[in-house]
Amino acid sequence: MMFISGVVVVSNTSRVMELSDRFVDIKKDGQWLVMFYAPYCAHCKRLEPIWSHVAQGLHNTNIRVGRIDCTRFTSMATEFGVSGFPTILFFNGEFQYKFSGDRTKEEIVNFALRLSGPPVRQITRSESLENLKTSNPLFFIYVGDNAGPLWESYSDVAEKFQPHGFFYSVSPEIVRKYVTVTSVPCVFVYKENSYYFFPANNSVEMEFLNASMFDWINAERFATFPKITRGNINQLLQTRKYLVLAIVEENKLLEIPTEMLVFRDMIESVITKNREKFHKWFQFGWVGSPELANSIAMSVVPLPYLLVVNSTTNHHHIPEDDPSQLTPEAVTIFLEQIHNQSAPRYGGNTLPVRLYRTYFEARTSLSEMWHGNPVLTAVLFGLPLGFLSLICHSICCADIMDADDDEEEGIQIHIFCTIRKSIMNVSRFSLMSWPGNLNSMWESYITGH
């Protein structure tokens, strides 16, 4: 174990640094990838071995990987705006970026590597471009001199999307060895071993060029048929396209049953064979977790299943035919109906739908907790309900008890007043008349007068 300005290396075998509240003073010194966690958090415990692999993967870089226990250093969560655990932040000088993708080693490492350098990196050798194609399945490239409207637009948008993609610039001489470039400058994206060019128009105004570049990069930064999870679906929704989701179920070994695999491949073939027709309006993908689809549809969907989500209105569409019996032709017709707005739609973002979605999510979560650990679920909900019932019983019974106390107190006051009145009357007579007055007092008490 060793100490470095308030930083503690967890062990000799771990490359993750355990940070303290003194991290505020050293965060500007270099680049940091930090996980804010709580020891009781189940998600944090699942991320712990992955985080160790992330630290190992970034060992040969200038990025230092650490973690902060927010139960010990509570001020750190407030200092960096952490509202949930685990939260992953990248620090580069004055800049701070939040990770919002899938919590896998590859996603987290790429996130850190993208932010560790400039938004646009220069490729100076043809070998570098060849290695890039081998190591990175998707990236953007600007071809030409680093000047002019197209370059300014490209570099500006690249800075905005730096946490989500890799951006490069290269000279025409280097890139022509790999791809045919008809005009310079130009911008293209490399994915699925293909090149797709940005439809540039040098005669347009700069404002329109920036908007077009932003929309194009925002749409092309995803693969043609990616796996969609809770970690990346929010980014996909920002494309403002229809999301065409092939719903299947993976087991713990990430294996898919044969019949579901055939269905998924069939949906993928629709976009690969009709890219020019559907790519502008639809983003295809597949989901390996039915729970995500159930949350969108607000019902338990059969498997395999086809679900199309409108990313701007949150409506969803489902085919009238049995999804397992769909053909590429039927899927094509179904998508055309959606594009023409003639297909039935469900869900949305109205208040009743949001309320029902909240109810469905709560019911689903409770059901999963009960099936996973019924004893713990009974304790978690039984104890609070037991205390609540005791509180309600005390509140309700307090009125009855107060009423009984008030009635008893009234009787005691009445008796006291009667006795006091009788004593005053006694004082008016001689001692010889005391027995008669005592009888009068007793009669008054008995009769209530």
TrEMBL record:
<feature type="domain" description="Thioredoxin">
    <location>
        <begin position="1"/>
        <end position="117"/>
    </location>
</feature>
<dbReference type="InterPro" id="IPR036249">
    <property type="entry name" value="Thioredoxin-like_sf"/>
</dbReference>
<dbReference type="Pfam" id="PF13848">
    <property type="entry name" value="Thioredoxin_6"/>
</dbReference>
<dbReference type="InterPro" id="IPR017937">
    <property type="entry name" value="Thioredoxin_CS"/>
</dbReference>
<keyword id="KW-0472">Membrane</keyword>
<keyword id="KW-0812">Transmembrane</keyword>
<dbReference type="GO" id="GO:0005789">
    <property type="term" value="C:endoplasmic reticulum membrane"/>
</dbReference>
<dbReference type="InterPro" id="IPR052250">
    <property type="entry name" value="PDI_TMX3"/>
</dbReference>
<dbReference type="InterPro" id="IPR013766">
    <property type="entry name" value="Thioredoxin_domain"/>
</dbReference>
<dbReference type="Pfam" id="PF00085">
    <property type="entry name" value="Thioredoxin"/>
</dbReference>
<comment type="function">
    <text>Probable disulfide isomerase, which participates in the folding of proteins containing disulfide bonds. May act as a dithiol oxidase. Acts as a regulator of endoplasmic reticulum-mitochondria contact sites via its ability to regulate redox signals.</text>
</comment>
<keyword id="KW-1133">Transmembrane helix</keyword>
<protein>
    <recommendedName>
        <fullName>Thioredoxin domain-containing protein</fullName>
    </recommendedName>
</protein>
